[in-house]
Specification:
Blueprint (H helix, E strand, L loop, with lengths): L8 H10 L11 H17 L6 E5 L5 H8 L3 E6 L2 H14 L3 E5 L2 H8 L3 E7 L8 H11 E12 L3 H14 L16 H10 L3 E11 L4 E5 L5 E7 L3
Parallel strand pairs: 1-2, 1-4, 2-3, 4-5
Antiparallel strand pairs: 5-8, 6-7, 6-8
Helix pairs in contact: 2-3, 5-6, 6-8
Length: about 240
Amino acid sequence: MMSSLNADPAELQKFSDLAHRWWDPASEFKPLHEINPLRLGWINSKAELSGRTVLDVGCGGGILAESMAALGARVTGIDLSEKALSVARLHLFESGWKVDYRLIGAEAFADEQAGTFDVVTCMEMLEHVPNPASTIAACARLAKPGGHVFFSTLNRNLKSYLFAVIGAEYVLKLLPAGTHEYAKFIKPSELTRHCRNAGLDTRELIGLSYNPLTKVYSLDTDTGVNYLLHTQRPE
């Protein structure tokens, strides 16, 4: 039953309806394509991906999962959108990379594969689930002792509302209207608390900014809107 999963059926439907456009770099997923080299490079700089067992939680159509596989990681991607996973699997025929995609939630997968992965990524997902703390705890369980866990999400404040909702969705049209629900945004203090409660140690908090004039994304110290968090499970 969907109600027993840590998932919002409306959110799943939203992304399922757009799934066929996931790999179109000019589509609604253009921002994901543009930020992927940044987040991939940052993840790889903190936990070298080559030869590692990696899990991408909420992998969607596989943009990050494939790029991690291209760096030599053994990648598993999990998601609850069948359509997104179908698109992800289909794209493997085009790219030639190898990713094991599974239709399963993080909590159920943690029951099955606890302590399995060197690296766990959960990017642009926490703001779309009813209980982010549950997802974070599952990610922590899935990591090996000493494993690295990465998150990215949106801060909750006036600036993020203006930039991520009004600016990105209605003014600049970077994202479809209704992509984000402001009340579900997560402050860094909340995310780090959830991580601490899940037994994860915070290693680095970094911001992801967009310059509307140059149309360029960059990693910096401004965590006011988008941000990424590197955590580690103790040995």
